[in-house]
Amino acid sequence: MAKSDSKSASKPDPNPKFSHRDPSHPDFWSERFEQDFTPWDTGGVPQALQQYVARAKPAATLIPGCGSGYEVAFLAEAGWDVTAIDFSSAAVDAARKVLGKWSERVLQADFFTYQPQQPLGLIYERAFLCALPPARRAAIVSRWAELLPAAGTLAGFFYFDDAPKGPPFGISRVELERLLHTDFELANEQDVTDSITVFAGKERWMEWRRRG
Ligand SMILES: C[S@@+](CC[C@H](N)C(=O)[O-])C[C@H]1O[C@@H](n2cnc3c(N)ncnc32)[C@H](O)[C@@H]1O
Q1: pLDDT tens string 83-94
Q2: pTM for the full model?
């Protein structure tokens, strides 16, 4: 479903006021979903994911921090066994509205403690790493590595920027490679041609293979 279909008819407040300042806490995100302030939201399925699904073998997939979760329906309809999680109740509500018959694929859960029901083949990354403060990066990478078996894939969009404030918190290429190289090797990457404004010119599609 397109983003415009999933939103209420009333326009979002052009000057929203937020009381939560810590993106590590679910209330930070819930408040933004509740006020319809979601500038990271693509409103659909990015082309690079569509291209990946067209050439890859279906795999048990986890989408951490799924937000509105458009990708869930896309993957499920392509025959992929997909589960999406988000720790914000408002994000889960938003995803369930978008997803209709696939809404049970979305769970309210914290990425750092969630235990998948089965071994994963793919973790799909979009606007999750950059959603959390840089101090959380090492923990995210450790959890990716714990959740994926050897030869499993971490694929998605990585946001490169050096602005000190976020979210989104951009990362440098050197820092991303430093964090990932112990447990992952880069298998493929490509430009992103359909970025939304927030990420335009600063994101790349990357596929990282879990080392054995
Ligand atoms: C910037 S949004 C991106 C949402 C979605 N991936 C997208 O591309 O539209 C980040 C999302 O990550 C979720 N999130 C942040 N920390 C989380 C955690 N520890 N566990 C699960 N979800 C988390 C937030 O609630 C929010 O919905």
Answers
A1: 999 999 999 999
A2: 0.95
